Amino acid sequence: MKGDIGDATLVSQIFAQEQIDTVVHFAAESHVDRSITGPAEFVQTNIFGTFNILEAAREAWLKEPSGKPSGTDCRFLHVSTDEVYGSLGETGAFQETTPYDPRSPYSASKASSDHLVSSYYHTYGLPTLITNCSNNYGPYQFPEKLIPLIINNALQGRPLPVYGDGKNVRDWLYVVDHCEAILTVLQHGKIGETYNIGGNSEKQNIEVVHTICDILDEKVGLLPGDRARRSLITYVKDRAGHDRRYAIDATKIRTNLGWHPRVNFADGMHRTVEWYLDNKAWIASVTDGSYREYYEKMYGNR
Ligand code: TYD
Questions:
Q1: Do 147 and 56 sit in the same domain of this protein?
Q2: 172, 266, 262: which is closest to 210 by C-alpha?
Q3: Residue 132 and residue 110 in contact, taking contact as beta carbons nearer than 8 Å
Q4: Structural domain that includes position 156
Q5: Do residues 11 and 48 share a domain?
Q6: pLDDT tens digits along 81-98
Q7: Measuring CA to CA, how many Å separate 147 from each of 28, 195, 196, 207?
Q8: Which atom in ligand 1 lies closest to the alpha carbon of residue 246?
Q9: Taking the model in full, what pTM does it have?
């Protein structure tokens, strides 16, 4: 079914009609830049939307006519982000016990939804799990995010916008590794707990952009006039409140559940660029009128 989690009636109808015992809650507004220009949708979808699913699950799982909880075999997994922990300096890494310190409307909305999920565990006994992951990349990522945006622009010979000094650091997690981690937590995680999921691949943004340029130069050849794609790099105005560095300490999921990322950054980037080269029709279909409007608004005067 395709629907809006902001629609409480629809969400509870789905729970009433289907025998749902497992929720893996991925639905969210996820782009920091969009949250800066339009925070309302983030509050609506990420906070109220999560609340609606929690309420529907509570109704379906914990309010049997007999009054006997039926939720023992159920699972509610909330997929969240490392951005709830704030920004790191040169050293250190986020652990599950790191205090929340969200700094963008996006991360504040995810922090809020995490708190709601955990309150439903403590207050009602809803069988919840929370995962906080680092930056994902891989197939089908919408080209508002750094990696697909740079691949798309570099293919078209357009400027590659790098915010600030390009030295902000993200810990890159290949999407298939993330999916495996989520499945592991769903099947083996301890109810009520949080698990951090990281890619063990910290990179400065400029390194990421260089990697994409070099892979494309090698795979599809240089730009006209024998120009390397690195020449397209354009430093632009920094993001407001730009978090400097994120890094995940994934010791808990590794030691308790045996998960670790299997795809290293170089390999993951080759696979990702390859996927975008093989799926140009998909990129064209998602970079239509509304994307062009978004791009103009975000990058036009930067
Ligand atoms: P992004 O993919 O938006 O993820 P997040 O903000 O959740 O980490 O951005 C990743 C990094 O890349 C972040 O430090 C901002 C930077 N960035 C650019 O330098 N240029 C861009 O055009 C975009 C979209 C992001």
A1: no
A2: 266
A3: no
A4: 136-173+201-245+265-302
A5: yes
A6: 999 999 999 999 999 999
A7: 19, 25, 22, 11
A8: 8
A9: 0.96
Amino acid at 257: L
Determine whether the shortest distance from the Cβ of 203 to ligand 1 is under 6 A: no
AA identity, residue 173: L
Establish if 76 belongs to a structural domain: yes
Q: What is the mean pLDDT of residues 181-209?
A: 98
Are residues 121 and 225 located together in one domain of the fold?
A: no
Residue 244 φ then ψ, to 5°: -75, -50
- Residue of minimum CA distance from atom 5 in ligand 1: 32
CATH code (residue 84): 3.40.50.720
Alpha carbons 47 and 50: distance in angstroms, whole number: 5
Burial 176-192 (b: 16+ CB within 10 A, else e): bbbebbbebbbeebeee
Which amino acid is present at 224?
P
CA–centroid distance, residue 67 to ligand 1 (Å):
48
Instruction: Report if residue 10 sits inside a domain.
Output: yes
Q: What is the mean pLDDT of residues 155-159?
A: 96
How many domains does one find in the chain?
Answer: 2
Q: How far is the CA of 298 from the centre of ligand 1 (A)?
A: 12
What is d(CA 91, CA 89) in angstroms, rounded to the nearest whole number?
6
Is position 78 within any domain? yes
